[in-house]
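Handout, section B. The chain below has 208 residues.
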Amino acid sequence: MKISELASATDVGVPTLKYYLREGVLHAGEVRSRTQASYDDSHVERVRLVRALTGVGGLSIAAVRRVLEVIEDPGVGPTDVMAAAAASLYEPEPAPAEGRNSAARELVDDLGWHIYPDDPALTALDEAWSACSDAGIGLDAARMRRYATSMHDVAETDVSSVPADPAGAVRQVVLGTVLVDPVLLSLRRLAQQDVAVRAGAISPPPTA
């Protein structure tokens, strides 16, 4: 198909498709002439994936590129799948300075979790936790432990669904993390409403 037909099949404008091509998140089509290339179903699938990652997942194009590199890397072994997949979702940052006080590190150590010392999620958690404190939202150690315990249950569900083959595992971990996060957030909102209704904090919804 021509690029105009690819645009029609994916509901994505030609200028955006050309941008994806320039940024390397959409593979080149088969060259037909000096000014034309042909595209197929693999391009349709890739465009939809990029749209899901940038739209629902909220990733930048740079992050999408890193995600795709991990998904397509045949050298990623089974033992490196989780770390490589998770790291691809974060913007590159310098490693934490030696001896830096980290509430996140203290929390995971106290919980007995096996976490790599340079995992970027530790820095992300420290920053988010600090922002809550700055905003006057008290997240003390006890409350964070309850949150962490609940998230560990979610993680067990996540990991139990990861396929055995490395390529499939990377894809599942990366896409599952990005695209399931909004599902979990929505479930949290709904659960908050149910808990509030049961506690009498808000009125129950009208019955049919």
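Note. The mean pLDDT is 85. Compare this with the example in section A.
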